[in-house]
């Protein structure tokens, strides 16, 4: 069984309206690239450490950089959050939050945390 992350057909269809139009040369497979971007960000990897199944790491980085600067990811998250009923609160899954290894020791050193 593979530990790689792949967007489903349903997820791709929900995201597709937010993709910019392709001009000229067709883009590399959106599912492969976006799945790779999610995998790298979710696991805190460097771009060059992305598994080869997602394609060249430079392609992943370039798409992430271009679409990030163009606001594609922001618009897609806002659009997905607005689908259906308008929630008053949007919950964010904090499962993948990471703290620096020295964060806990800083409180002890400064005397903030009593033993």
TrEMBL record:
Domain of life (superkingdom): Bacteria
InterPro entries per record: IS402-like_dom, Transposase_6_like
Domain Insertion element IS402-like: 7-75
Keyword Transmembrane helix: no
Record flagged with keyword Magnesium: no
Keyword tags: Plasmid
Name the UniProt record assigns to this protein: Transposase
